[in-house]
Amino acid sequence: DLLDPERLIQCPLVKHHRIRARRFPYHLVKCKESNPEIAKNLATCPFNARHLVPKNDLSEHIMKCRDKAFMEQDVVSQSCEPPQEQLNNGSTWQAPPCDEDWET
Q: Where is there biased composition of kind Polar residues (predicted)?
């Protein structure tokens, strides 16, 4: 199950490291610091920072990355919303006066 936080994931830096999914982002940070020579040969996927791939394979990974679909959905849904200026032009709402005094 991809959503199981207890599933084991193989580290892209050190192949014998197997980390629980919930700890994986933290492990990547520490493992990159501990293995700078390996880390400098890897590139981070623009769609998911947990995807570290060899720099030479990044463009192929980008074309096949399953997380790209989520990003594309966000772009499409944002383009379907009316521009912010249209929302502001039709509204008569005004913010209430602020009674806070940060100096006191």
A: 77-94
